[in-house]
């Protein structure tokens, strides 16, 4: 049986940074499911599909072949044979993904792939619905959050470091809008699983969060053994 750590939470809570570190420490595979939804959104954008047209989104999504490969321990998202990692982290793709991930056919397609990966490997998987839908039997479930203001500031600092000009207020407004979309959609909304451990990272360092999750893992192992 594989060991599964599920981390869910809103955009900008630090899920991917923490999940990557944790996966490295435990020598597990890191599965960034948001990147899969982003690859699908990128494909739909490239094909000029209107995100509000659910039927068109569902139909077109069926011709996106998304797979995950690992190169030097890094997750590479391959869309119809092409490495698309470099195109996924823009605000445009993130906003499109927040809308198109509401589509049931999109979710069905990507959920199957995520379950397969977790059945074959020990994983740290992050997303919105991992503990609730994708891996309801995960060994450890974490719900990682932070205040919208803190998340916006982190994103702002990231963009500034990349040399981009941006507006902090607009970023915060986008974050609040995406939270609303992710939490209020009909299928697989973002919510804390009943058996998930809540961690608010607003005033914690990355290492503190990783250490806290490691402690939760140790506790779950002890309980398993006892
Ligand atoms: O975590 P992220 O910002 O890369 O995710 C991009 C979008 O994909 C986000 O708005 C919600 C969606 N998503 C989802 O619906 N389910 C997941 N398991 C992961 C992401």
Protein architecture, described:
With 226 residues, this protein is an alpha/beta fold. It folds into two domains: 1-28 and 122-226, P-loop containing nucleotide triphosphate hydrolases (Rossmann fold, 3-Layer(aba) Sandwich); 33-121, P-loop containing nucleotide triphosphate hydrolases (Rossmann fold), CATH 3.40.50.300. Helices cover 52% and strands 17% of the residues. It has nine helices and eight strands. It has helices spanning 15-26, 33-46, 54-61, 91-100, 104-120, 130-134, 148-161, 168-184, 206-225; strands at 4-8, 29-32, 66-71, 74-79, 82-83, 123-127, 140-145, 197-200. The strands form two sheets. It has a five-stranded parallel sheet, sandwiched between helices. A three-stranded antiparallel sheet has the order 3-4-5. The longest helix is centred in the C-terminal third of the chain and has 20 residues, at 206-225. The protein starts with a strand and ends with a helix. Bound molecules: 2'-deoxycytidine-5'-monophosphate (DC). 2'-deoxycytidine-5'-monophosphate is lined by residues 11, 33-34, 37-38, 94, 97-98, 101, 127-130, 178, 182.
List the helices and strands and how they pair.
Elements: E1 4-8, H1 15-26, E2 29-32, H2 33-46, H3 54-61, E3 66-71, E4 74-79, E5 82-83, H4 91-100, H5 104-120, E6 123-127, H6 130-134, E7 140-145, H7 148-161, H8 168-184, E8 197-200, H9 206-225
Parallel strand pairs: 1-6, 1-7, 2-6, 7-8
Antiparallel strand pairs: 3-4, 4-5
Bound molecules: 2'-deoxycytidine-5'-monophosphate (DC).
